[in-house]
Design a protein that fits this description.
The protein is 36% helix and 11% strand. The protein is of the alpha/beta class. α6 links the parallel β4 and β5.
Length: 285
Amino acid sequence: MSDQTAAARQLVTLRAQGRTAEADTLLKIAAQPSSQWLGDQAAKGIVDQVSRRASAVDRTPVFVAYNIPHRDCGLYSAGGAQDAAAYRSWITGLAEALGDRKAWVVLEPDAVAHTLDGCGVKGAAAAERYGLLAFAVQELKKRPQVRVYLDAGNPGWAQDPSALADALRKSGIAVADGFAVNVSNFYGTDRNAAYGAELSAALGGKHFVIDTSRNGNGPLGGDAWCNPAGRALGEPPTAETGRPGVDAYLWIKNPGESDGECGRGEPRAGEFWLPYALGLARGGA
């Protein structure tokens, strides 16, 4: 548990306001480890601080590198590094900040999958992206205690598994420790395990991690990925999954942080939203 997460800070506020019942509910989120997302120029300092604090108590932080140029197809989490050179410099800074400390890094949610759908970069821009991801994997893996997992979409993202495996190869999966599935999504663990196992088989047995942060009730259905109602927390983070090839269940998405405005005036992507967090903690109620 970190006292630096948005959920932990909100918990302190609720206790101070005497809102005990809500605080007790929110503790289901705040008491679990979740990831530190990195997406701007402050990232190097954050990595240094968080990794030092984790090392001091013999814990392993999980970082999410989320700064690829042309990020998120210009949707609610649009942005990213200005260009390829800026991205390479940014990644090099993260690797330097990690030094010889332990860390897991989930690399660029959606970046590979968006080269294969109707939204994302194509042609030379896709080739550049694969090269940047491969560079990121290589730089991070120069650090002796860093594990790297390339994002590989989710089971509901309609795409050819063989094409995805090929794109991951171009993005440096051979050097990475594995891949991540279901980041910020809601698909159930069994379905993710099957999806990951199929992809693993195409990649020579690469291991993977599953984001279980909000998959307790599975997806709402259709294209309802943006703050869908009635969802629930999934399995707590653990490296003891009992599933061959599944290195961990992680809370990669921080439960309670908004997916975006969703066309309904909801909080911006990444902002903590207490009513949604309480709904997740109550099992979708």
